[in-house]
Write a structure and sequence with these properties.
The protein is mainly alpha-helical. The protein has nine helices and no strands. The longest helix is centred in the C-terminal third of the chain and has 27 residues.
Length: 211
Amino acid sequence: MPRQVDHEGRRRLIAEAICLIADERGLEGVTLRDVAAVAQVSMGAVQRCFRSKEEMLLFAVGYVGERITERVRTRLGGAPAQSPATALGHAATEVALLREEHRAEARVWLAFVAQAAVSEPLADTLRTSYAALQDLFAGLITEATGSAPVGKDPAPPGPRREARALLALADGLTSHVLIGHLTPEEADEVLHAHLAGLWERLDATTAGRAN
């Protein structure tokens, strides 16, 4: 009986190889030969999984985005008793990739962002990842403020606007830490100061509606 090949598992293995190479040399250094060597598969196996380098990169950036989103969801699910406000802080910290163990992932993510500026297919994949994170943030903000039933109605304009701002801040802090403009501790302080201001603004808005 011929040996069954786990194609999805192999595609993820190749995505991991792409990330390792991109972290060392940037996306321009990703070649079919090197991906095969790092993944410890044949070049033919890589070509059977992906028809082109662009297709490989599209899968890899989606893979990294899913990994970050899944880590956020795991962090939230690991402490179900936490308040929505606390959960939002944890989620934003995960997205900012401030911890040392996520530094390589941050470099790879920014390499994809830079390439997406000249690649519409990559940009489209990144927009999908950002949209999922923004929806997650908006849901937590909505739940914390009691603006609408979570999971039933779309988040109101206030929480949606705050979610966009928070996601943009978390994403920008990744760059500032990588280039050494901010330390991870300083970036974390900026992030949590923004969160404190967010709750003050939303509390004031809620109080204004009540009056």
